[in-house]
Amino acid sequence: MSPRRIPAATDAVERRETPLTITVDGEPVSGIEGQSIAGILLASGRRAWRSGRSGAPRGVFCGIGACFDCLVTVGPERDVRACRRRARDGDEVRTQARGGGGSEL
Amino acid sequence: MYGTRAVILGAGIVGSACARELARAGCATTVVDRGRPAAATTAHGEGNILVSDKGPGPELELAQLSRRLWPQIVAEMSEQAPGMDDLTEWDPKGGIVVATTDDGARELAKFAESQRAVGVRAETLDAAALAAAEPYVTRDHTAAIHYPEDAQVQPAGAAAALLADALRAGATLRTHCEVHGAVTRSDRLTAVRTSDGDLIEADIFINAAGPWAGELSTRLGAPIDVRPRRGDVLVTTPLPPTVFHKVYDADYVGAVGSSAEDLQTSAVVESTRAGSVLIGSSRRRVGFDDRLSVEALSAIAAKALRLFPALADVPVMRAYGGFRPYVPDHLPVIGPDPRLAGLWHAGGHEGAGIGLSVGTARLVRDLLLGRPTEIDATPFRVDRPAVLGRTQKGRAA
Amino acid sequence: MTRHVVVVGAGPAGLAAADAALGAGARVTLIDEAEQPGGQYHRMLPEAYAAARPQHLHHGWRAFDARRRRVLAHPRCAWWSETAVWALERPDPAEPGPPRVHVLRGPVDGGGRDRHTLDPDALVLAVGAHDRVLPFPGWELPGVYTAGAAQALAKGERVVVGDQVVVAGSGPFLLPVAASLIEAGSRVREVLEANTSGTLARGWGRRPWELAAQGGKAAELAEYGGLLARHRVPYRTGRTVVEARGDGCVEEVVVARLRADWSVVRGSERTVAVDAVCVSHGFSPQLELPLAAGCALRATSAGEFVEVDGDQRTTCPDVYAAGEITGVAGAPAARVEGALAGWLAARGDRNIASVRRLRTSRDQGRAFAARLARAHPIGTGWTSWLRPETVVCRCEETDYATVCRAATNESTAAPRAAKLATRAGLGPCQARMCGPTVAEIGARLQGPAGDLHIEGLPPASEHRRPIARPIRLGDLAAGSGTTATSDSNSRTEESSS
């Protein structure tokens, strides 16, 4: 059942959770305020959301903005590093395919 | 000529193309470079093979010759060694020139008409045809001409393929070998002294040092006036197919022909095989100053957006700059040096050297073998005021 | 005139630099891409988490928290969070000085971010490092993470990458990563240090008095060791993950024994079922900004770092460097370097006792870095676990055979020609991941390139990225407007478009 978010109730840092919802390719996905888009995707059970040149699946690799594997489109903006971008309630996230034939700019 | 010893100084695309022609013609050919092949100007351009930006005259003739040769050479190289077309990334994608003002439209129409008169294919596109050919180009245009003969290669790959073919034909390569000076005997260049501490003897030496041709020719005692003219290119992240031809602003022709010292920009936009869009171009006369100029990059971006407003949200992930070999009269220098027997020059192509390399090499071969040349080579002769005139003070520019 | 010091990076080194520069009387602009200071080491939980006990996840929280509050509240400090330095523009060689700093302020990678320029009197670069991961078959599978990713997710937003995890690579950093996974509730199957016990003993064993100076670091590591023991997590040396396998994501890893040079002992392979694997073979300093500023690098056995003198000065006038970009020695050493750099960048008195103490401590940090590099080298035999089809460049999916072919063909061997021919390093990460690997393979196959200075043609470097962070074409086109020079007042906004 990995990956996942540590439940707030058992989290030793004693924190709060304010829910938010983003959409991923139109489908609602819930997370909590303060999370990165990558964190929300991972915690919702998605380990891969982008496809590379060969079509192979990719998700988070470096987690700190250096590898550019986790790129997503947020609203009108393509190539946003999901591991660095803080999610906002209502963000419309679309996954990207590097092969990309026929998809829109 | 069989057995003539030829030394080519510079392993960029012009030197590689010359090496291929001479080795195949039976010369004992050696290519010498102070670094490694295709590492300097050749690897810092866009890989243009254009006829569209040249008006009637000797440079257009050389471009047309080169354009005829390129597909033949790519086919010959692929026969020799599979994979060479992959390395070259030869793509006869065609060019589209777009004007965005009424004046620009008039100038472009006149320019295209003059080109048609000398055999250039230049097809006027109406708004619908332009939108079909380039769906993301601005609707805010006043004229567009399609040049189906324009093509593109991956420049370092194309140079590597030419050099590899030369080596297969018997040429040899010496890297990390810098030429320090000349050995002459009764006004003839008979050898060059190198950083390896030895002499390389030959019957002819071809200066193919690109923007450093002026410096090299000075070391050899026969200076020519070739200067660096800086250019910058922006590279976007890989995109879905967005730009299908080489698309440029009608201003580009004016900027190419200009001799201004200060920053000139015009939009040149095209995709690479991997999906990135290359965005040029700028022209600055700043010597060999390799510092990044945000002003230049911003100006290039602004011009490109006028042509492709849809690219506004696309990230630029890299910029690179290089130095074009610039001759004050904007014509290449091809042929023997009248002051020093045994020394030849092949260069000064400014931003067109990738495309013109193969035609230049063919001229060098035919001139050397005493054969009739396919086009008139006299406009490119070394003995002209722009090449020999200002060499004493000019190189500091 | 108050000196204006711009500090890039608000991790342990940058925060210390800002603190010291403020103490010396300077006006400081502290820049970081994150929303909060701390860097990777003190990566903070989001404010929205409203954590009552953040210190649970940190070593040295109290000192960090105090410094953070002091710096951010200082009247002479402008804290520019969510700010990316996307370019540095060198001044005319006739007027040497720090480069002009071009920044974008706003959400990461967003369009329409505000463009600003800063013209500081001194620049302190403290931009840190990221994991260096050597390629291995299957490393591009989802579920393979850098060790830093696992830690950032656990520490920064309480997301755990897997339930059955193997941590592998080299260096003491593997221990805190394993610890944070355990803390977050993962089962860490094993921690694998690629270097043999002999290499570790030789590296750590000599001159133990040097270690005493880094006592804080040693105690921290000992604590992690204790945690691993309590959770019965085996720490094995001379072993590593040589392959990740799975259908669409990692399901198992192949673990093999290594010789001292990291060559694989054939026949020693075994598989371990996992749902995540975290790997780090060392660190890659982020050198694009130092290079853009014109700073010289120095080559070491652990890779290239920024060359600095005894004052943390780079070879570029009024540009200082601190932290992991000068050498990897951990947070305590980075703090000391930062403090020294910030104080001297602000032209603080160089002859006071506290500066002498900082220098001594900094020298001990450097000794520690050298020791770390000796104990945890990257062996040359690692290429033995590659296959011809193993992906080397993750972005462009260039494989090992292609990289070798380009490097051994004399027509394409120049780094730039090879890059264009193979596309390794040309993708979105701009060689941040594969650059050192491709350079290492190339150097091995070709021998050293030799020093050649050509006017207008700077030597090829896998770290050169003149556009240091992507900028949207529309934002680049928008221009940067007017530029204010630094002056004596304490404005926080210099100029904006």
TrEMBL record, chain A:
- Residue stretches of biased makeup (Basic and acidic residues): 85-95
Keyword Oxidoreductase applies: yes
Q: Name one Pfam family in it.
A: Fer2_4
- What InterPro entries does its record include? 2Fe-2S-bd_N, 2Fe-2S_ferredoxin-like_sf
The molecule here is called: (2Fe-2S)-binding protein
Q: What is the source species? A: Streptomyces endophyticus
Q: Which UniProt keywords apply?
A: Oxidoreductase
**Where in this protein does the record put region Disordered?**
85-105
TrEMBL record, chain B:
* Top-level taxon in the UniProt lineage: Bacteria
* Domain FAD dependent oxidoreductase residues, every copy: 6-367
The cross-references to PROSITE patterns, in alphabetical order and at most eight, read: PROKAR_LIPOPROTEIN
Record SUPFAM superfamilies:
FAD-linked reductases, C-terminal domain, FAD/NAD(P)-binding domain
Q: What are the UniProt keywords, alphabetically?
A: Oxidoreductase
Among Pfam families, the record links this protein to: DAO
PANTHER family given for it?
FAD-DEPENDENT OXIDOREDUCTASE DOMAIN-CONTAINING PROTEIN 1 (PTHR13847:SF287), SARCOSINE DEHYDROGENASE-RELATED (PTHR13847)
Protein name (database record): FAD-binding oxidoreductase
- Lineage in the entry? Bacteria, Bacillati, Actinomycetota, Actinomycetes, Kitasatosporales
From TrEMBL, chain C:
Can the keyword Ion transport be found in this entry's annotation?
Answer: no
Keywords of this entry: Oxidoreductase
Please spell out the taxonomic lineage of the organism that makes this protein.
Bacteria, Bacillati, Actinomycetota, Actinomycetes, Kitasatosporales
Q: Name one Pfam family in it.
A: Pyr_redox_2
Q: What Gene3D superfamilies does the record tag this protein with?
A: BFD-like [2Fe-2S]-binding domain, FAD/NAD(P)-binding domain, NAD(P)-binding Rossmann-like Domain
InterPro entries, alphabetized: BFD-like_2Fe2S-bd_dom_sf, FAD/NAD-bd_sf, FAD/NAD-binding_dom, Metab_Enz_Cyan_OpOx_G3PDH, Opine_Oxase_asu/HCN_bsu
The keyword Zinc is annotated on this UniProt entry: no
For this entry, the protein name equals NAD(P)/FAD-dependent oxidoreductase
**Disordered as annotated region, ranges:** 458-497
Q: For the FAD/NAD(P)-binding domain, which residue ranges apply?
A: 4-337
The residues the entry assigns to the signal sequence are none
